[in-house]
Design goal:
It contains twelve helices and twelve strands. The protein is α/β, with parallel strands linked by helices and about 350 residues long. It binds S-adenosyl-L-homocysteine and iron/sulfur cluster.
């Protein structure tokens, strides 16, 4: 898949903004360049009208600027928009733009969350997930991660307020590039998004969670727990055999202590699999230990997979266990259900239709 990558010019944003060496040598040119990229979201050097033509030509000869090209934007009735991107090597990727619903989320109106991908495909093969169905293809580079945010900002007409690494791929399996992307996304020389508005979601790579705890910045961690016991987790998440709960929960504790931050458990509700009250009671124990809050997500069905979301009574029964235990657990009504907004679903549909470049 990455076979034709070496023939492509490097992406400018794979070099951190602080290390750019411009041929003009004038320091304010770098500032102008940054403004065009991070404030005006342009996708080509030619558009940077206040830069000398020779500098623009020189940059274009050396680098690519846009890492992703929008191929399709799919809107949902609830105004969630899913963007399918094509990368330089033809790989497909997706991001989801989610406007906050002021009445339901309690945010001021206009808040925008972007869900970004970190890899093409995923090697972790969680049974319920579309992203892992075709296996792992490659890691995204920092520029390809940041590129999704810049491309989405251009489409939305403004910078997203919140970023979540909940698209395709396992961010902690691509930690060096994700780390470099976080640096550009949060630094004042880059996009300047507050680290506390950035959430890294993981299926549970215990050693990398501990590594993440050492990286500076007040970003958040979401753990895709999806089961309270090893027995259930083993059935749906192969990663649990490598890092069972006995390793995973202490790693999360290290993160929570280092960052003094509350962790969130993501918990997809799968009918007759992980939706019984005994499982909820096991989750309560982990949540208490970590002071975690819990996001319950009714499963978004994936074509070709046998899993289903539970009915409303089962969802309410499950949530009730947390209420009684005094642990915060909200049911997240997944937005964009009608546009396959769960990770990997749109890409899968495109590839099945033979639209891969
Ligand atoms: N690999 C990371 C991040 C990407 S997945 C992780 O697993 O956390 C982001 C979230 O989407 C995870 O919590 C994942 O379990 C969830 N997810 C995957 N498929 C889903 C589906 N069909 N319906 C609802 N959530 C899903
Ligand atoms: Fe990969 Fe996350 Fe999907 Fe599991 S849920 S297969 S880790 S993207």
């Amino acid at each position: 898949m990455s076979g034709n990558l070496p023939t492509l010019k490097p992406l400018l944003l794979d070099t951190p903004p602080g290390e750019w060496k411009l041929s003009s040598g004038e320091p304010w040119r770098e500032k102008q360049l940054r403004e065009w990229i991070f404030q005006r979201f342009v996708s080509s050097f030619e558009e940077m009208s206040n830069l000398p033509a020779a500098l623009r030509a020189d940059l274009a000869a050396q680098y690519r600027l846009a890492a992703v090209e929008p191929l399709k934007i799919q809107g949902s009735a609830d105004t969630t928009r899913k963007i399918l991107w094509r990368l330089g090597d033809g790989s497909l990727l997706e991001s989801v733009l989610i406007p906050a619903n002021p009445s339901r989320d309690g945010h001021r109106s206009g808040r925008l969350t972007l869900c970004v991908s970190s890899q093409v495909g995923c090697a972790y093969g969680c049974r319920f997930c579309a992203s892992g169905l075709d296996g792992w293809r490659r890691n995204l580079t920092a520029a390809e991660i940041v590129g999704q945010v810049l491309g989405a900002a251009k489409i939305a007409g403004c910078r997203p307020d919140n970023l979540v690494f909940m698209g395709m791929g396992e961010p902690l399996a691509n930690l060096p590039r994700v780390r470099a992307a976080i640096e550009i996304l949060t630094s004042p020389e880059g996009l300047g998004i507050g680290a506390r508005h950035l959430t890294v979601s993981t299926s549970g790579l215990a050693p990398q969670i501990e590594e993440l705890a050492q990286i500076p910045g007040q970003f958040r961690l979401a753990l895709s727990l999806h089961a309270g016991t090893d027995e259930t987790r083993d059935k749906i998440m192969p990663v649990n055999r490598k890092y069972p709960l006995g390793k995973l929960i202490p790693a999360c504790q290290t993160f929570a202590r280092a960052k003094r931050k509350m962790i969130t458990f993501e918990y997809i509700l799968l009918k007759d699999l992980n939706d019984n009250p005994a499982e909820a009671r096991a989750v309560v124990r982990h949540a208490r230990r970590l002071h975690a809050k819990v996001n319950l997500i009714p499963y978004n069905t994936v074509e070709g997979l046998p899993y289903e979301r539970p009915g409303e009574p089962a969802i309410r029964r499950f949530q009730q266990v947390f209420r009684e235990a005094g642990v915060e657990a909200t049911v997240r009504r997944e937005k964009g259900h009608d546009i396959d907004a769960a990770c990997g679903q749109l890409r899968l549909r495109q590839e099945k239709a033979g639209l891969t470049a």
